[in-house]
């Protein structure tokens, strides 16, 4: 998923192309997927990120650029994708193949949302704009999901590789410390 506007990042480049540790975040995510057991990589882009689409060396599905959920729905409606589908946000520069495979191994049919404790994000010093209660605990979505046809499940982890989404320049500084 790499078609968002990235307005909170306040950078002159498109968010997926924003460099963390000298490498565009989208390249780090594609590299992590290539290191994993994922069979095929397809990027969901939008009119908000034309330079990202031109930069990528993987097939792209253009979505309307109307927000994460609308763009995800549009991508999943494309006949090039089948379910279950692993979805990953382009703003996870710490992602690697090992944690991607752990997510895939945690998937047991249906859909899976990967969550981290909101306290972990706060402890790391990264933004936690979206949190909710799950099982009596405040959690935050990570931007990593498996979308399937069936019941929804959640996987809670304390792994910083999925906890550090870069939404602000301060988040980018935190990510660079962990690279």
UniProtKB/TrEMBL annotation:
Q: What is this protein called?
A: Cobalamin biosynthesis protein CobY
Pfam families the record matches: NTP_transf_3
UniProt cross-references to Gene3D superfamilies, sorted A to Z: Spore Coat Polysaccharide Biosynthesis Protein SpsA, Chain A
Q: Where is the MobA-like NTP transferase domain?
A: 2-118
Query: Carries keyword Transport?
Result: no
State a single Gene Ontology molecular function: nucleotidyltransferase activity
Q: What is the lineage of its organism?
A: Archaea, Methanobacteriati, Methanobacteriota, Stenosarchaea group, Halobacteria
InterPro entries from the UniProt entry: MobA-like_NTP_Trfase, Nucleotide-diphossugar_trans
Sorted UniProt keywords: Transferase
């Amino acid at each position: 998923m790499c078609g968002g506007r990235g307005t909170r990042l306040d950078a002159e480049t498109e968010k997926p192309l924003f460099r963390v540790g000298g490498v565009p975040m989208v390249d780090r995510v594609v590299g992590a997927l290539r290191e994993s057991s994922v069979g095929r990589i397809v990027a969901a882009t939008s009119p908000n990120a034309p330079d990202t689409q031109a930069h990528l060396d993987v097939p792209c599905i253009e979505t309307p650029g109307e927000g994460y959920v609308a763009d995800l729905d549009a991508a999943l409606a494309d006949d090039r994708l089948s379910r279950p589908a692993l979805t990953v946000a382009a703003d996870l520069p710490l992602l690697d193949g090992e944690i991607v495979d752990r997510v895939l191994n945690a998937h047991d049919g249906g859909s899976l949302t990967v969550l981290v404790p909101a306290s972990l994000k706060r402890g790391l010093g990264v933004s936690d704009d979206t949190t909710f209660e799950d099982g009596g605990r405040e959690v935050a979505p990570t931007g990593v999901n498996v979308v399937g046809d069936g019941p929804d499940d959640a996987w809670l982890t304390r792994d910083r590789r999925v906890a550090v989404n870069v939404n602000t320049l301060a988040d980018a500084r935190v990510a660079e410390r962990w690279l």
